[in-house]
Design brief:
This is DUF1622 domain-containing protein. Residues 111-146 are annotated as: Disordered. Keywords: Membrane, Transmembrane, Transmembrane helix. The protein is an all-alpha fold. The protein has four helices and no strands. It has helices spanning 3-38, 43-76, 80-105, 116-125. The longest helix is centred in the N-terminal third of the chain and has 36 residues, at 3-38. 10% of the residues are buried.
Length: 146
């Protein structure tokens, strides 16, 4: 098989992976939501987690589909028309990705997580706990000498 044929096959495989990611993610998110509802989970919380799971699978699928488009368009048929069509497709899918990210996390992809800095500060300043028995006085040692 020649090089262009291999790239075309890789592009198709990544396309299939994108569709599979979306479908499997949707099925998995649905099964998890149904299971949570059957266990008596709160409807609003289940719905929110369901949307997050579904959104994440769609985001992953979109990223794979964009990668497949880039492989096929740039590597296989690099004409001005195909690159222009690719640009439009990438813009639409990027907009969808940003919108989904906003839905899932409540902020744009370029915005920081409001609690991330606090968690990093705590991680840097927190003193690790001594393992049990490591700083305990040994037999015969005076507690004041520790």
């Amino acid at each position: 098989m020649e090089f262009l044929g291999i790239l075309e096959s890789v592009g198709k495989a990544v396309d299939v992976a994108g569709v599979v990611a979306i479908v499997l993610g949707a099925v998995l998110a649905t099964l998890i939501a149904v299971g949570a509802l059957l266990r008596g989970g709160a409807g609003e919380g289940v719905y929110h987690r369901y949307r997050q799971g579904l959104g994440r699978s769609i985001l992953l699928g979109l990223e794979l589909l964009v990668a497949a488009d880039i492989i096929r368009t740039v590597a296989v048929t690099p004409t001005f028309q195909s690159v222009g069509v690719l640009a439009v497709i990438v813009l639409i899918r990027t907009f969808l990705s940003f919108s989904l990210e906003l839905e899932i996390t409540g902020r744009w992809p370029w915005q920081k997580d409001p609690g991330a800095e606090d968690r990093q500060m705590l991680a840097r300043t927190a003193k690790p706990l001594d393992p049990p028995g490591q700083n305990a006085p040994s037999e015969g040692q005076d507690v004041g000498q520790h």
